[in-house]
């Protein structure tokens, strides 16, 4: 899932017009989604380590 969000963020940035006035929204959503996915992945890894 983390890789999917990273790929989506990369795609969103590459296909958007970063000179547009609302480009910050694209960057915000891409960054927020990627960071959320990384936090979720880390949480899953930590919970998996505690189960063993």
Treating each run of at least 4 consecutive H or I residues as one helix, how many helices? Answer: 2
The biggest sheet, with number of strands, parallel, antiparallel or mixed sense and barrel status, is: none
State the distance separating the first and last CA atoms: 23 Å
Radius of gyration: 14 Å
Structural class: mainly alpha
Order of helices and strands: HH
Shape: elongated
Unreliable spans are: none
Strand content: under 5%
InterPro entries: Perm1
Give an account of the 3D structure.
The protein is mainly α. It has a domain at 1-10 and 26-47. The chain is 83% helix and 0% strand. The protein contains two helices and no strands. Helix 1 runs antiparallel to helix 2. The two termini are 23 Å apart. The relative contact order is 0.17. The mean pLDDT is 84.
Secondary-structure blueprint:
Layout: H1 2-15, H2 23-51
Helix pairs in contact: 1-2
InterPro entries: Perm1
Give a short summary of the structure.
InterPro entries: Perm1. One of its GO terms (cellular component) is cytoplasm. By secondary structure, the protein is mostly helical.
